[in-house]
């Protein structure tokens, strides 16, 4: 009986230690899918599009036009704050510079050659399903590392990416 109590207490202590460990939390929160999930989680927690626009800047890749859009036209995120995240999955990795520019005409026009190369260094295309007022939507997010952290680059429709 004492052995069972010891094992239960030891297991609980190990679990509590793991939950509180930054390295364990980092492993679970890193990756291309995590930044997309964070985007929708922050959107649902935001009071309005303007409040959410501040969060967008924190999640955006330095080469992405998202930060500028968030600063200049926060109302562009009105629809996002009403969406509810359902699921996401990585569908492609290591997109070429040409493929990156094909995600969106706006993105292609906004990126410099250095920005495109920065994104091309390590990237992924994430398919995300969200629930909106008029049903489920599927979107694609181009994400890339920036300073070792996964960041948002630009969204697109499934047939555009």
Automatic annotation (TrEMBL):
InterPro entries given in the database record: TAT_signal, TAT_signal_bac_arc
PROSITE patterns with a match to the protein in the record: TAT (PS51318)
Name the record gives this protein: Uncharacterized protein
